[in-house]
Specification:
It is a single chain. The N and C termini lie far apart (58 Å). The protein has four domains: 75 residues, Ubiquitin-like (UB roll); 136 residues, Domain of unknown function (DUF4445) (Nucleotidyltransferase, domain 5), CATH 3.30.420; 165 residues, 2-Layer Sandwich (Nucleotidyltransferase, domain 5); 94 residues, no CATH class. The chain is of the alpha/beta class and 513 residues long. It has a six-stranded mixed sheet, with helices on both faces. A six-stranded mixed sheet has the order 21-20-11-12-13-22, with helices on both faces. Helix 8 crosses helix 13 and helix 8 crosses helix 14. Helices cover 33% and strands 25% of the residues. The mean pLDDT is 92. It contains 16 helices and 22 strands.
Length: 513
């Protein structure tokens, strides 16, 4: 494999009166003989180690190279042959969860994967709270930066329990949204949120790991961003899905606090992003929570009764504590199909005695002591409407119809866990052939892994950024009109959702057209 790092065993010739080449030159020429054609830089900290290490090693050494964006840098020298011990790290730096994967860079084998909550959460579950916390305050910004780094290191520590090699890794690839990368680099991220949205750094590229306080000898590569809201996690998703290489039309949709969308193929890439709200992570909902132990993540209504699945409750000992994004989508879809809410998302108390009034508004008890309120539904419908019009407007701006799309990639943690049927039922996803719906799972992490193992993909990243055309949704003339239309369940135009109409006919014997 030819990734972002290399590790090579060199059996160097011993200096003689006839061969008075320097130690430095001896290593460089040996590397060239091993097929390393690019320039190699040996920094002074490595030059200082050549003596007496080479003598003691009998001139048989293993050198570690890390790509710095322009050339190879020699970052470690070891006695003997340790070339098989070649490792790297791929990181998905999410605003809620950080995931780190350990790779054998010789074979490409995944040795381990660990995750933890992003330690930035202590300053707010939503990104805006964190941005405002450290705005124009270097001390607080440093706190955010260190929390970000500590999250990555916590995952490395977990990996070391089974494979104590994370500190020996030569390269790390990080994919995250624009704000997360700013925080990792210790850069004020208010620019991401505030007009004119000109960010401070969109292509930070390769940075020495030690400059970021990450305990590696080599370099950290941060995926570039296209815009303030379309970050490196989406570019990484492009590398993973290879959307930019395909003939047919693909739709790539990653929705969370923001919704990021790319439509295109090998000939064009149209992209856009917009705020979707915190509802998908359990925000704004009275009993909302992240997808953690105790969260309701799946809901079904059968025989007039609500049945829920609770994360981590395989033993039956964990009671539901709240509801996460996938559970919310299921709940609203089931309430709609049962007729317990109407097309506006308003409760119909005459349909079931499970609907009651608390705190001055209608609600339903979806689990013992846990209530879902009318205001919760209203807030979530705004989120689902935003998701719908992103896809609809982007298709229209592309001059395409939905039936021309060959693939619909649902990416990110929400796309991984949400029920496609429920998302279509409420009008969040388009009603299209299910075989075209692809769960892209954590494409951000997968794209980071791909790049770690294949340096040639750096050229592909440049190509993607060059080909992408960014659309500002808010500047579309009929944006508000489209937003209002999409706030109905599943939409004011029923013909856009034929399979949902069939479900309603079966569940309620209702025909809308």
């Amino acid at each position: 494999m030819r990734g972002l790092s290399r590790k090579l065993y060199l059996d160097l010739s011993v200096p003689t009166e006839e061969d008075q080449r320097s130690d430095q030159q001896r290593i460089l020429e040996a590397l060239s003989a091993e097929g390393v054609k690019e320039e190699v830089h040996i920094p002074v900290r490595m030059l200082r180690q050549l003596y007496p290490l080479l003598d003691r090693a009998g001139w048989k050494i293993t050198v570690s190279l890390s790509w710095n964006g322009e050339k190879w840098e020699l970052v470690d020298i070891e006695s003997g042959d340790t070339a098989r011990q070649h490792y790297g790290l791929a990181v998905d730096l999410g605003s809620t969860t950080v995931v780190v994967r350990l790779l054998d860079c010789n074979s490409g084998e995944i040795l381990g994967e660990e995750s933890c909550f992003n330690k930035q959460i202590q300053w707010g579950t939503d990104i805006l709270s964190r941005i405002f916390f450290c705005k124009d305050d270097r001390k607080k910004l440093e706190e955010i930066r260190l929390a970000t780094v500590e999250s990555i290191i916590e995952c490395m520590d977990k990996l070391d329990v089974k494979h104590p090699v994370s500190r020996k890794c030569l390269s790390m690839v990080v994919a995250g949204n624009t704000t997360m990368i700013h925080f990792l680099l210790g850069i004020d991220a208010f620019c991401v949120f505030y007009t004119p949205h000109a960010v401070h750094a969109d292509r930070p590229g390769f940075q020495p790991a030690k400059d970021l306080d990450i305990p590696l000898n080599g370099y950290v590569y941060c995926y570039p961003a296209k815009s303030n809201y379309l970050g490196g996690d989406i570019i990484s998703g492009m590398i993973e899905t290879e959307l930019y290489k395909k003939d047919g039309i693909s739709v790539f949709f990653d929705i969370g606090t923001n919704g990021e969308l790319v439509i295109g193929n090998k000939d064009f890439l149209l992209c856009g992003a917009g705020a979707a709200g915190p509802a998908l992570e359990g925000g704004v909902v009275h009993t909302g929570m992240r997808a953690d132990a105790g969260a309701v993540d799946s809901v079904r209504i059968r025989g007039g009764k609500i049945h829920v699945h609770v994360i981590g409750n395989s033993s039956g000992k964990i009671s539901p504590k709240g509801i996460c994004g996938s559970g919310i989508v299921d709940l609203i879809a089931e309430l709609f199909l049962e007729g317990w809410i109407d097309i506006r998302g308003k409760f119909s108390p005459e349909k079931t005695n499970l609907i009651q009034k608390r705190e001055g508004q209608l609600c339903i008890e979806y689990a013992p002591g846990l209530y879902f309120y009318q205001k919760d539904i209203d807030e979530f419908i705004l989120t689902k409407a935003a998701a719908h019009i992103m896809v609809e407007i982007m298709l229209r701006e592309s001059g395409l119809e939905l039936n021309q799309a060959d693939r619909f990639y649902a990416a990110g943690s929400f796309g991984k866990y949400v029920s496609v049927e429920s998302a279509i039922t409420i009008g969040m996803y388009p009603d299209m052939e299910r075989e075209k719906m692809i769960n892209a799972e954590n494409s951000s992490l997968e794209g980071a892994q791909k790049l770690l193992l294949n340096k040639e993909l750096l050229a592909d990243i440049d190509q993607i950024l060059e080909e992408m055309t960014y659309i500002q949704f808010a500047e579309v003339d009929d944006f508000l009109e489209q937003m209002v239309a999409a706030q109905a369940l599943p939409h004011t135009d029923y013909k856009k959702y034929p399979t949902v109409m069939e479900k309603l006919k079966k569940r309620q014997n209702i025909c809308f057209y």
